Structure formats: structure tokens, C-alpha cells
Amino acid sequence: MKATQNPPAQIQVTPADLLRMAALYLRRHGWHQGTYYAHNTDTLTPPACAAGAIGIACAGHTVEHFSQLDSDALADYLNALGVFVDYLDTTAPVFFIDEDGYLLDEHTSPYSWNDDPARTAEQVITALTAAATEWDSLRTTGGEIR
């Protein structure tokens, strides 16, 4: 590239993009419950839970805890996970009430939702994709971001 040429513009990855990447990762490499990733040292691409797959979409590799992400990837991770939680809150709300009747958590935990024994891989993949589609539909008009 010559000094007079303009460098290519940075492509902005949206939370919807990351959620779709996470869904694709799960389709290709498998889904897991209980921890971010199945403990299998034989592969760089182990089966993952929903949050683990979002982490891989953000970092490009496995991340045992979101605190291991650099600041840009962490911001992307938290935004994408927040979009997923918002989607779960409207489609599959799970509320925890203490013995006195007080609401303990007003948002659906993507971790406990993923780890529900009745959950299936297809439900997780579908929810990630649907959350991405919802994010897009709320923020775009005619192909332009609002």
C-alpha cells in the first residue's frame, strides 16, 4: 500500500455477529454443559457451553474465564452476552425468589439456562441465532444501523 492510499476501514463486529459465530461454533464443535468447555486436551476446539462459545467468538480461542480477555474482547463479550441475556429474559425467563419472597435475580442466567438438564444443543443454537436476529431487527433499517 502506498502512503497516499487510505487504509481499509475497520470492520465493526456486532453482538449479533458474535452470537451467530457462537452458534456456528456449537454446530461445528459441539455443545457442553457444566463448564465453559469439555475438558479435552486433544483439541483446540472443544465442545462449549453458550457462554464459552461466545468467548471463543470474541477471542478466537478458548478462555476459561472472561477476565482473561483483553479489554476490547471483554467489551465485545459482555455486550454479546448481555444481548443473549436480554433475549432469554423475554423468551425463557427464570427468576429466583428467596424464602421471604424477594426476587434474587431479575435476569435469566445464561449459565443456568444452558445447564438445565432438559436443555438441548439445538435449543441453545436456536436461541443464540434468534437473539442475533432480534438484535439486528431492533437496530437496523434498510441495511443501515440505527
- Give the count of helical stretches: 5
* Rg, Å, rounded: 17 Å
| Average pLDDT metric | 85
Distance between the ends: 33 Å
Biggest β-sheet, characterized?
2 strands, antiparallel
Number of strands: 4
What general outline do the C-alpha atoms trace?
Answer: globular
Oligomer: single chain
Q: Roughly what percent helix?
A: 40-55%
Given helix and strand content, the structural type is mainly alpha
Low-confidence region ranges: none
- H/E element order: HHHEEHHEE
Q: Strand order of the main beta sheet, please?
A: 1-2
Description:
The structure is a single chain. Helices cover 49% and strands 6% of the residues. The chain is mainly alpha-helical and 146 residues long. The strands form two sheets. The protein has a two-stranded antiparallel ribbon with strand order 1-2. Strands 3-4 form a two-stranded antiparallel ribbon. Strand 1 and strand 2 form a beta hairpin. Helix 1 crosses helix 3, helix 1 packs antiparallel against helix 5 and helix 2 runs antiparallel to helix 3. The model has no long low-confidence stretch (mean pLDDT 85).
Keywords:
146 residues; mainly alpha; two-stranded antiparallel ribbon; 5 helices
How would you summarize what this structure contains?
With 146 residues, this protein is mainly alpha-helical. It has helices at residues 15-29, 50-59, 71-91, 110-115, 121-139, and strands at residues 96-97, 103-105, 140-141, 144-145.
